[in-house]
Amino acid sequence: xxxxxxxxxxxxxxxxxxxxxxxxxxxxxxxxxxxxxxxxxxxxxxxxxxxxxxxxxxxxxxxxxxxxxxxxxxxxxxxxxxxxxxxxxxxxxxxxxxxxxxxxxxxxxxxxxxxxxxxxxxxxxxxxxxxxxxxxxxxxxxxxxxxxxxxxxxxxxxxxxxxxxxxxxxxxxxxxxxxxxxxxxxxxxxxxxxxxxxxxxxxxxxxxxxxxxxxxxxxxxxxxxxxxxxxxxxxxxxxxxxxxxxxxxxxxxxxxxxxxxxxxxxxxxxxxxxxxxxxxxxxxxxxxxxxxxxxxxxxxxxxxxxxxxxxxxxxxxxxxxxxxxxxxxxxxxxxxxxxxxxxxxxxxxxxxxxxxxxxxxxxxxxxxxxxxxxxxxxxxxxxxx
Length: 385
Hints:
alpha/beta, 2 domains, about 375 residues, single chain, seven-stranded mixed sheet, Aspartate Aminotransferase, domain 2
C-alpha cells in the first residue's frame, strides 16, 4: 500500500483478516499459541519457521498496530512497548553501553529528564544536555564515544523546535543515531524519518489513542536498529498488551482527522489568549511571532494542539485560573478529545531541580492546555476570567 495517501493507509494498512473473515481487526487475547507438533514448536523457538510463540514476543494485534504505524511514519519496522517511557528506555539501553555517551535536549518531557538523570547516569552512560535549537551546541557536544542524539520536537510544553534536517546532517557525519520523540506532532503532522532521523519514538498514550483510554508506546525506523530494540524488549518484558494495541490501532484510523481539528482549535485559542490582559505571553508555534514558527512551518504540516501561556503573576494566579475552569479537565495527560489543563512546574516537571526548570523556561506562572475536540467557543468561555 505504498502508493496510498496517509488517511487511506491509516484506515487500511496492517489488517490481515483471519479465516473468520472479520472486517474489523480482531483482538488476540492470548498469552501463548498452540503448535501442530513438537517439531513445529522447536522450529518456531529456533527461528527456523515464522510464527507466534508467546505474546511477550509477538501477537497478531500488536503486529497490526506496528505495521500500520510503520507505514504512516515511513519506517522499515516498528516495535511497540507498554508505554512511551518504556520505548525511550528500550532505545537507550539498546544503543548505549557503559562508558559511552549521548547528547539530549534539555527541553523534553519532565519524566524523560528524570530517567536520564536518575537511572541512565547510574549505568555509567555519560549525558550532555543542550538547548534544543542550538545546532552548534549539538555539534560541539559530540565525543568519540557519542552514540545517540535524543530529543523531542516540538518540545512539551513550550513548542521549541530544532531543524531536523540540519541536525540529521550532524548526526550522520559523526555516525550517531538520531532519535526523535514525535509524540506532540504524530506522523499526521510531522515525519522525522523523511527528514533524516533514524528512529522516531511515540507515547501512543497521547494523540495516537486520542481518548485517554490506555498506555502504549512505540519505536519505529531503521530495521536493523528496531531488530535490536525488539530483542531487548523480548528479554525485559515491556510488552504492549493485545487489548491496548487494539485501542491504539483503532486510534490511528482517525488520527489525521483529529489532529487537523486539534490544530484549528489550538490556533483560535492561541490568538484569543494573545489579546487577553491576564496573559503575559503565549507559546504556540502556530503563531507567526513564535521564534520557531518558520522552522516548524518547513518541517510540519500543522502546529499541533498544545497551547501554553504565562499568566500575570505567579503560581497562585496560575492555580486560580486552573481552579476556576468548570468543563476543562485538570489532568497532566495530553492528546485527548477532552481539553486538559495543567501547571507543568508542579506536575509534569515537578521532579526537575529549580536550575533545570530555569534552563527549560518552566516558570511558576506557566499553564499548559491540550486543546480537545469540544467547540472552541466553549473552551474559551471556560478559561475566560
